[in-house]
């Protein structure tokens, strides 16, 4: 190997040491997974803000109930779903395993559980809409149950992927922790 400005070793141009300059795969995976989880968290925040806006408009009666329906019961506990996302973001700077685990557990409790309850709560109204064509709640001219089922489907996918990537990130962090203990 050669120094910065000095002579090079005979028979080399210095490029034969590139294999030593690679980043370990679990570190690369950690960076990639953090990026994906951040995208999902930002998507979740957008969904959360839309639900919060609908709740504020409904309760403060900023628009008539013909335009924006009152929120369903599942939307209230879903507002707590912002907490797991914040815990997830807090776990990233120092690879804090305990924050990530808390984020995953609370995602199930505050995000996935209200979505399941919401799907069950809205099911009779969805049946009535599709069997008889009657809707009693509307959001800007669309049936509220259709709009909210769309929100539930998108949010369930966001939280499902968030849990999946968080589990893979947790595995990646455990790999790096185990390698440090071996040394």
TrEMBL record:
<keyword id="KW-0812">Transmembrane</keyword>
<dbReference type="GO" id="GO:0016192">
    <property type="term" value="P:vesicle-mediated transport"/>
</dbReference>
<dbReference type="Pfam" id="PF07086">
    <property type="entry name" value="Jagunal"/>
</dbReference>
<feature type="transmembrane region" description="Helical">
    <location>
        <begin position="41"/>
        <end position="64"/>
    </location>
</feature>
<dbReference type="GO" id="GO:0038158">
    <property type="term" value="P:granulocyte colony-stimulating factor signaling pathway"/>
</dbReference>
<dbReference type="InterPro" id="IPR009787">
    <property type="entry name" value="Jagunal"/>
</dbReference>
<protein>
    <recommendedName>
        <fullName>Protein jagunal homolog 1</fullName>
    </recommendedName>
</protein>
<keyword id="KW-0472">Membrane</keyword>
<keyword id="KW-1133">Transmembrane helix</keyword>
<dbReference type="GO" id="GO:0005789">
    <property type="term" value="C:endoplasmic reticulum membrane"/>
</dbReference>
<comment type="similarity">
    <text>Belongs to the jagunal family.</text>
</comment>
<keyword id="KW-0256">Endoplasmic reticulum</keyword>
<dbReference type="GO" id="GO:0007029">
    <property type="term" value="P:endoplasmic reticulum organization"/>
</dbReference>
<feature type="transmembrane region" description="Helical">
    <location>
        <begin position="99"/>
        <end position="117"/>
    </location>
</feature>
<feature type="transmembrane region" description="Helical">
    <location>
        <begin position="138"/>
        <end position="158"/>
    </location>
</feature>
């Amino acid at each position: 190997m050669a120094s910065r400005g000095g002579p090079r070793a005979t028979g080399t141009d210095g490029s034969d040491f590139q294999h030593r300059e690679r980043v370990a795969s679990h570190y690369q995976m950690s960076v990639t997974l953090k990026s994906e989880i951040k995208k999902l968290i930002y998507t979740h925040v957008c969904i959360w803000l839309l639900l919060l806006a609908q709740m504020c408009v409904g309760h403060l009666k900023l628009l008539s109930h013909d335009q924006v329906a009152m929120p369903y019961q599942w939307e209230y506990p879903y507002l707590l779903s912002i907490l797991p996302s914040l815990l997830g973001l807090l776990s990233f700077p120092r690879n804090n395993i305990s924050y990530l685990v808390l984020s995953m557990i609370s995602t199930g409790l505050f995000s996935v559980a209200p979505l399941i309850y919401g799907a069950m709560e809205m099911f009779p109204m969805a049946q009535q809409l599709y069997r008889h064509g009657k809707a009693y709640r509307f959001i800007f001219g669309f049936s509220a149950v259709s709009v909210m089922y769309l929100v539930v489907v998108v949010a369930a996918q966001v939280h499902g992927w968030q849990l999946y990537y968080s589990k893979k990130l947790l595995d990646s962090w455990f790999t790096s922790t185990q390698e440090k203990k071996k040394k």
